[in-house]
Predict the 3D structure of the following.
Amino acid sequence: MKRGALLFAFNNDAIDYYTMAVKTAKRINHFLNLPVTIVTDKTTPNNNYQFDKVINVAGDLSNFRDEKIWINKGRYQAYQFSPYDETLLLDTDYLVNSDKLLSAFDYCEDFCFHQNAKYLMFKEAGSDLIGTNTFLTYWATVIVFKKTHRSNLLFDFIKMVQDNYTHYVTLHNCFSTQYRNDYALTIAARTLNGHIRDKSNFIPWDLLHVSNELQLFSKSDKQFNTEFVSVLKTMSDPFEPEKTTYLEVKDTDLHMLSKKNFLEVV
């Protein structure tokens, strides 16, 4: 049974997602030994060794983030576009740094994704509500799915949410009116499951975010140093100086929220 990874990459004025996808594909090839298909609007040579297949489509320009076009719609096409029996659908800012994701295929019956997340070097959980009238977010950063009827239904539901996003934003009183793949996945999966949390859908470890406040430095292809500067003020000493914290990370996959730092590291 053929396995592979699928990446969506559409550049905007601020971020070079295509270059991120090239770097991510290289790490997928190295750590997971999987072929990679890319969906993009960028013309790329078919003999690019990073990609098993290149699918060219026009990006949807209707979403904005930080006053710039954010081409993040269309993930519902992942089921249709994937040439693999079992697919790892990955965000391009995910730093593959081990072979751990391979085990997600074994946990997955039809599809699975992260329910819980944490921030590197922070105690606070990375999970949050999608709105004031609703439930915790499921994370679309990593989705593993197999070519089954139930997986097909999931992506059909995601398309339904995207096509009727204004309705769902109003229904759940979402914190953001911008289309988010995390929100679409959350609503679609819960709808498909009759609004019951199906534990078989969850990857059994936490997604690990690297926040924008944390700086990551490459020590080697597999090893990184982090630096975090915090201002620790207390009532007893309001002039307490900043504190710099360091951590060495190796053999650990990371979701890099800072796209600039991601490109620096890889």
